Amino acid sequence: MKNGSFWRSAPETKFWPDRVQELLLRATLAPGAVAGESYAKWLALADCDHLDQGSYRMLPLLASNLGRQGIRDPFLKLCQGIHRHTWVRNQMQLSQTRELLKDFRREGIPVMLLKGAALALAYYADCGLRPFEDIDLLVPTAQAQPAFALLRRMGFLPCHFPGREITREYSGIIHAVTMVNERGLVVDLHWHLLFECLNPNDDADFWGASERLDKESDPLYVLCPTDQLFHACVHGCRHQVGGTNIPPIRWVADALTIMAVAGERIDYRRLGQLARERQLGLALKLTLGYLRDPWRATLPESFLSEMADWPVSAWERAELRTQQKTFGFLGPLPMIWRYYRRFKRNGARDRIVRNFASYLQHFFHFQHRRDVLVFLASKGIRNLGRWFRAKLRLPLHRHDLPFAKRSNPR
């Protein structure tokens, strides 16, 4: 990346924080006077009563950083309360998670903690600084069905299709399933780290380099620092979070925190290899470029020079553009088509899924191929009604609203 502003000139940059969000990030992450100045500018521009969920999730870290600078004001007192609430909620989820992991160990199923919970424990000084809404667990691909069956016996049900079972076909086209129990604990059970990589051996590198958390009395494994940074950056390129359009600005704080805490433990040669082998070089190129400029993240010059020469295919660019789009008339269908294209491109289990209709059948857990047509027709009619309502400026039904607008993020 010979030009430090590569990320600014690239066409696939809708997912960067906007001006107001960037001010919040500076107030949250910057030291000294810069944090205070950014906070004052952010307060003048932001509607603190109607924050987007991405910004709301940064408030515990904001309270901590500005508290260290000796800054006091009424809004920061509210943020401190959110910090305490987040700490309590995280501790309750982690307590249940530790019990889950004991059952996994008793069944002989290897398991790794991912995303928010792993970052809160391994990289943030205070568990309350990094909110997480669910628990992400990774099991080996071959253990997907036993792990799912174990969670079912423990009272967990799939969120979207309660009668769903993890069949060989389903585990071959999807990377994870979301489950919830009666106590409200949400678990994302992964058998692949990324939905872009669904071949049986795609996660061997991550398992081979995983690390045990020393601060935990029971064995608890997480990704190594290099893989954590890779995972955070790849997620930074995703405009949509579960179809809810939550701005994914938290990845900036996660990535910079990983780099600050891990330091020289990050293997940049491995980082580049992970991205290129998984056809995610453009995503890494863009996100690391953004971290370098404007955030002044320190990256080895040899790695920057090497990364600048990575070839980027038209297919990779098209895939990333699709990933940035919000759901329109066709709903999630373009996104699912992208999943299918990568699935076929990687040659994963072609004998199971022969065409897009078959893929949709397994994706939505339908018994018959004709159910796909009925489902698409009903979705199309609903989206068409939503389009007409928007054109005629009629009030939308509650189920037509994006999740972020259905409820106050507080």
Describe the protein in words.
It is a single chain. Strands 1-2-5-4-3 form a five-stranded mixed sheet. Strands 6-7 form a two-stranded antiparallel ribbon. The relative contact order is 0.11. A hairpin with an 8-residue loop joins strand 6 and strand 7 (221-222). It is globular. The chain contains 20 helices and seven strands. It folds into two domains: 6-318, Beta Polymerase, domain 2 (2-Layer Sandwich); 327-406, no CATH class. The chain is mainly alpha-helical.
What topology does this entry show?
Elements: H1 6-9, H2 19-29, H3 32-45, H4 53-56, H5 59-68, H6 74-106, E1 112-114, H7 115-122, E2 135-138, H8 144-153, E3 157-158, H9 168-173, E4 176-180, E5 186-190, H10 204-208, E6 211-212, E7 221-222, H11 225-236, H12 250-262, H13 268-277, H14 281-292, H15 301-308, H16 314-324, H17 333-345, H18 356-363, H19 370-392, H20 403-406
Parallel strand pairs: 2-5
Antiparallel strand pairs: 1-2, 3-4, 4-5, 6-7
Helix pairs in contact: 2-3, 2-5, 5-6, 11-12, 11-13, 11-14, 13-14
Give the N-terminus to C-terminus distance in angstroms.
40 Å
Helix content: 40-55%
Given helix and strand content, the structural type is: mainly alpha
CATH class of the largest domain: Alpha Beta
Give, in spatial order, the strands making up the sheet with the most strands.
Answer: 1-2-5-4-3
Within the CATH hierarchy, at the fold level, what is the topology of the largest domain? Beta Polymerase, domain 2
Number of helices: 20
Low-confidence stretches: 398-410
Q: Would you identify the CATH architecture of the largest domain?
A: 2-Layer Sandwich
Structure summary, number of beta strands: 7
Tell me the β content.
5-15%
Shape: globular
Task: Evaluate the radius of gyration.
Answer: 22 Å
Largest sheet: 5 strands, mixed
Count the domains: 2
Query: What's the order of the H and E elements?
Result: HHHHHHEHEHEHEEHEEHHHHHHHHHH
- Provide the residue-averaged pLDDT: 83
